[in-house]
Amino acid sequence: MYFTDRGIEELVERRGDEAVSVEWLAARLRAFVDTHPGYEDAVERLATFLARDDEDD
């Protein structure tokens, strides 16, 4: 298990039954980067990864 899995597990436990929009997610990512600018590159990589995930098609 990676260190980040703990945060992912918490997300699933707290919000796993919710449906969210891409707009909501984008707003939350922007707010995170505003608060933690040192993570801008990681958030950018995650957003790009999610945007290009075509395996659902």
Characterize the largest beta sheet: strand count, sense, and whether it forms a barrel.
none
N- and C-termini, Cα separation: 29 Å
* Strand portion: under 5%
What is the tally of helical segments? 3
Classify the helix fraction into a percent range.
Answer: 55-70%
Order of helices and strands: HHH
Which shape, going by the Cα principal axes? globular
The average pLDDT value, as a whole number, equals 90
Low-confidence regions: none
Structural class: mainly alpha
How many beta strands in the DSSP annotation?
Answer: 0
Rg from alpha-carbon coordinates? 13 Å
What's the structural blueprint in terms of helices and strands?
Layout: H1 4-15, H2 22-35, H3 40-51
What does this 3D model show about the protein?
The protein is mainly α. The protein has 3 helices and no strands. The protein is globular.
In short:
The chain has helices at 4-15, 22-35, 40-51. With 57 residues, it is mainly alpha-helical. The mean pLDDT is 90.
List keywords for this structure.
57 residues, mainly alpha, 3 helices, 67% helix, 0% strand, globular, DUF6104, DUF6104 family protein
